[in-house]
Amino acid sequence: MPFMAPPAGSERAGLRGFLAQQLDGLRHTAFGLTEEQIRLSPARSTLTVGGLLKHVTLTVDAWSARAEAAPALFIDPRLDAMAEGDDFRVGDDETLTSLLAGYDAATARVLAVADGADLDAVAPARPAPWFPEGFEGWTVRWILLHIIEEVARHAGHADILREEIDGATGYPLIAAAEGLGDLGFVQPWAPDRD
Question: Which of 51, 75, 134, 180 has an alpha carbon within 20 to 30 A of 164's alpha carbon?
């Protein structure tokens, strides 16, 4: 999806368009990277492009499952990985191909939620001290907006990491990943031939 979310004639189309745009943007940060490069943390943090893909996959998939289960309570043991921070670490057995396959599956799942779920359905939450008094859960609408926020935040992290790795930036990566060719205002990214 080139550069901007498409025009939206409805709330649902807007949610879906921005979800797809942000998810594509994060995916494109990995375009052309090697197995070694997805594990690099070139900034002061420990974040890596591969780790961000892994974390966002788990996050998007878990929130999508919660939305699909509404109005039933959803409990996902995979979320324990988030508490331990394992969702940001790329394992030795994980590859860019396997990370992107999981990411693409999570993307398809959340876009299906955006396409068909009742936006007013409430996904209940277990009581927790950080929730306001009387809080019972999130609407599917809120969940989709939260996923957009979460993906956008991490897409920004990935943009910085990618630029530090090899100088590639968003628009040229999108142009290359989408096969758009020379658009005049942007040249598709290509690996440095030096």
Answer: 180
